[in-house]
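Contributing new records

If you add data, match the layout below exactly. Sequence lines come first and carry their own label; structure lines follow with theirs. Keep one chain per record. Anything else will be rejected by the validation script.
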Amino acid sequence: MRRRTLLGLAVAAAAVPVTAGCTSSTDPDPNPSPSTDESTNDSEASIDTFLRVGAAEAETELIDRYTATIAAHPTLAAALTPLADQHREHRVALQSQPAPDSQTSPAGVNVASDPAIAVNDIIAAERAAADARTLDCEQAESVELTRLLALVAASEASHAEALSSASETS
């Protein structure tokens, strides 16, 4: 990968910090609706818990892909590390106990030997994750989780776009 491509990826990564809104703190619901049915509250918590766990696991998979790609192609580290760090922030916002990062290349992540193909694989993973988080928004019961999932989806979509734009200029 050429130096200009790496610079483009780094600039794109710096221009995409969307995680400012990715916090696990809750904003008060502007339209709280009192519920008298306990089963509704249990169902809401169950669905939202399921969505949070699934989204956090998906973030871990993206982190693993970034980590493996950086390990296989160290010249991409400057461009990819800020995006991987945003996924770490997403994961923290989605779960109460942060999962430790692996210090070795994640098992099961195949990284292409060509850096351009490896970046294209990340782009595909980001797009798939953005689509999945968008679908999760439709299923979330709480306003807080819907907002968080929407922010994560937007961030993932912007990562894919930034990486695509940077790779097209190379």
